[in-house]
Design a protein that fits this description.
The complex is a heterodimer of chains A (126) and B (212).
Chain A lengths: L13 H25 L8 H20 L7 H27 L26
Helix pairs in contact in A: 1-2
Chain B lengths: L14 H36 L1 H8 L4 H26 L3 H31 L13 H36 L9 H24 L7
Helix pairs in contact in B: 1-5, 1-6, 2-5, 3-4, 3-6, 4-5, 5-6
Classes of the chains: A mainly alpha (126), B mainly alpha (212).
Chain lengths: 126, 212
């Protein structure tokens, strides 16, 4: 043991490695299957929200346990989380715009394709 | 020590520093990847906001069995990659090659299933343009996103297979020591491919399944 590696408590045997990783995999598979099953359960408008919440939980599991963010290294933790801030700005700006824009400048939320003009290729024109 | 020369390279004074630098560099790259896919996924939701019913109807046409099986395959490949990352660091040679080989095999299975799925989609004419079978304009937008997102993800998969394959080949030829931080960095990239898919799965395959 040189002590020259990040995460000095890293597993050295197959058994220790499986013990470290297989439970995470079991949780990931269980979450994937449950998100598939829940997609068929009517939940009003919340199906997509539930699937996305499960996806976020899976991302956290992969990030923390497989991508080593569990290791106490501030540099890697910061760089591993920085994108959250940028994506946060992106989402906030885009959806603030969409939620507050006057309806007149947006297409109708319900669609009736037969009333829309199409170009010669059969594609709807916007 | 396994053969294949020194893991420590210039200009680092310790393998610990080198490992941290490799992880940091890879994380910076992964941040740009997160913004690439995050931007596309934001565009997906921004469009879905205006075409909710069409997106749900279009999503029902996606091949949920292929999507789900591929999700399980990719999650399992993340397990083998995580084991490979530990095994290379601990210099367990046989376990390293087994886990890297399994990761590559699962990646190939993923791509193979993906190609079968694309073929089935094309047989149903699900490519926006002439002959596209769905009337609602939003459905063509959904399938536009489908092709962009899945093919971009597929390209990343090919990149991941190439990187992990190359490192494994180098290690097998004795040109790269197992202690090299490159394995862990390649592992980070592999897990990112998995995380992107974790989000594409509900977007594409679980859309509008409650109403038929």
């Amino acid at each position: 043991m040189s002590g020259h590696s990040l995460g000095e408590g890293d597993p050295k045997t197959l058994r220790a490695m499986l013990w470290r990783t297989v439970p995470v995999w079991v949780a990931l598979i269980a979450l994937a299957l449950s998100s598939c099953a829940l997609a068929y359960v009517p939940m009003g408008g919340f199906n997509m929200a539930v699937s996305l919440a499960i996806a976020a939980a899976k991302m956290v599991l992969v990030g923390v346990f497989f991508m080593h963010l569990r290791r106490p290294d501030p540099l890697l933790r910061l760089s591993g989380g920085a994108w959250l801030l940028w994506i946060g700005f992106l989402l906030a700006m885009v959806f603030a715009d969409q939620a507050t824009r006057a309806p007149i400048s947006q297409p109708a939320h319900t669609e009736n394709a037969s009333q829309r003009p199409t170009d010669p290729a059969g594609m709807p024109s916007f | 020590m396994s053969g294949g020369g020194e893991a420590l390279r210039e200009p680092w004074e310790s393998l610990r520093r080198q490992r941290e630098a490799a992880g940091f560099g890879m994380w910076l790259f992964l941040n740009s990847e997160a913004l690439l896919f995050g931007g596309l996924i934001t565009a997906f939701f921004a469009t879905r906001f205006f075409h909710l019913e069409a997106f749900q109807a279009a999503g029902r046409e996606a091949e949920v069995v292929y999507g789900t099986v591929n999700t399980l395959v990719l999650l399992t490949s993340s397990l083998t990659m995580a084991v490979a990352s530990h095994a290379t660091r601990a210099e367990l040679r046989r376990l390293s090659f087994w886990s890297l080989g399994l990761t590559l095999a699962l990646g190939l299975v993923f791509l193979g299933l993906k190609i079968m799925e694309w073929r089935s989609d094309l047989e149903k004419n699900m490519f926006p343009g002439p002959g596209f079978p769905m009337e609602q304009p939003g459905a063509a937008l959904f399938w536009g996103f489908y092709w962009v997102l899945t093919s971009l993800h597929g390209l990343h998969m090919i990149g991941g297979l190439g990187t992990v394959g190359f490192l494994t080949w180098e290690a097998a030829r004795g040109k790269r020591p197992l202690r090299s931080p490159a394995f862990e960095a390649a592992g980070l990239y592999w897990h990112l491919i998995d995380v992107v898919w974790i989000f594409l799965y509900p977007l594409i395959y679980l859309q509008g399944r409650t109403s038929s």
